[in-house]
């Protein structure tokens, strides 16, 4: 890393961890408005696509989805890099599992999308340094922060993901012993290296952490990380408990995707949106404003512009504010993708109503008898369900639990069908609940 970038990393670490403080949400929002304005004034004119919108307020800019972002990729970045070149470079890196190559000095990568076209990201060296500083500020507990700054030994990080990127290895330095564990090779083959390293910080998708927790509980993975962080998948309540017990701590979360670093768990254990760097407009899903789809403007990125990007996630707001003082909105949970929401017509009224992933999970966990791991797939008015033990009794109990939820919401029950349980491989994102096809109707009512 160049000296300038090292200094930038340090500056953003200090800024994020200690310097950015606000007297309440209103003061924060005024500050954020100024940051967004400066971002729009400085960087929109540099992008061929956004040049036409220069001088306009954020609310006048188009809301973009993944398709639009890919369609206008060439014009939405300020580096003049085309989608074909970026995709080819990123695919090469994935094929060879050598994630070091760059394209004209830029880091390129693909999102690990579960379906549809994969997102492409483009990050300049100074953005990498900034990202690394913010990331360290957000993830290191006090003892590890002290070690990073003045300790004799490096902070040891073990990082499991489906694809590495130069972005992540920016964290590697004399101060940080960063090891990437490629999930293409499964989980268990990494155990010896993990035991040898004895990581202070363990970062992995929730389902992988659950597997590591199982090994730890069985005594075959003797490690004592000081912090365990879930990424890339929904952290479900049962996994959270299991992982927490195995390692004797509360599991933290990083809400990070191709479109930016969107959220993190604070020292009080509450998930906050990273609004000091990302502007997030809530697109409310219900009248009571408990759930929303985030529309993201990342005013800290200047190469690939992320402006009013509608992310297909459902976020649930936390009702009680957090006492830690962070200005970012407190989030109860990242519930899942928009297509993890299942839909049914009302028993009496017309139109479809939504059943959100956490409602379904809650219904399953509160079933009278403990149920094994499961999958639910909606195909119109048929719900295909699978249970890990394949037992008829488990299947019936799962269907009954869902039935009770559906009755409580006064919805028309679907036909429950059995499907075989297929556990996802380590390199595939786990999704328990999925809407493949909604029932045919034109109206929607959000519950
Ligand atoms: Zn907090």
TrEMBL record:
Organism superkingdom: Bacteria
InterPro entries: ANL_N_sf, CapK_Type1_Caps_Biosynth, CHP02304_F390_synth-rel
Residue stretches spanning the membrane: none
Entry-linked SUPFAM superfamilies: Acetyl-CoA synthetase-like
PANTHER family xref list: CAPSULAR POLYSACCHARIDE BIOSYNTHESIS PROTEIN
The protein, known as: Adenylate synthase
Organism: Massilia atriviolacea
Lineage, uppermost ranks: Bacteria, Pseudomonadati, Pseudomonadota, Betaproteobacteria, Burkholderiales
